[in-house]
Specification:
mainly alpha, Death Domain, Fas
Length: 80
């Protein structure tokens, strides 16, 4: 997760939506972790997805990354 959170960048909201999180959930994460920076927001977003949408897989995360135009991150995930 740390690798994805450090690489996803400005596409984090698109990724969150693709993973099934609501805009409200994404805004709450943004507000709760804004002082910690974007990387932490993304880390917490993936953690939330993992807990509320369980069972989750790396393949699902990689597919979502491809869908939002981050095939490079999907490639990194596939190397895990």
């Amino acid at each position: 997760m740390t690798m994805v959170s450090s690489q996803i960048g400005k596409e984090w909201k698109k990724l969150g939506r693709q993973l099934g999180l609501t805009d409200g959930e994404l805004e709450t994460l943004k507000m709760n972790f804004l002082v910690d920076g974007q990387e932490e927001i993304v880390y917490q977003m993936i953690s939330k997805w993992n807990s509320v949408c369980a069972p989750t897989t790396l393949a699902q995360l990689a597919k979502a990354c491809v869908t939002v135009g981050r095939g490079d991150v999907a490639d990194l995930i596939s190397e895990l």
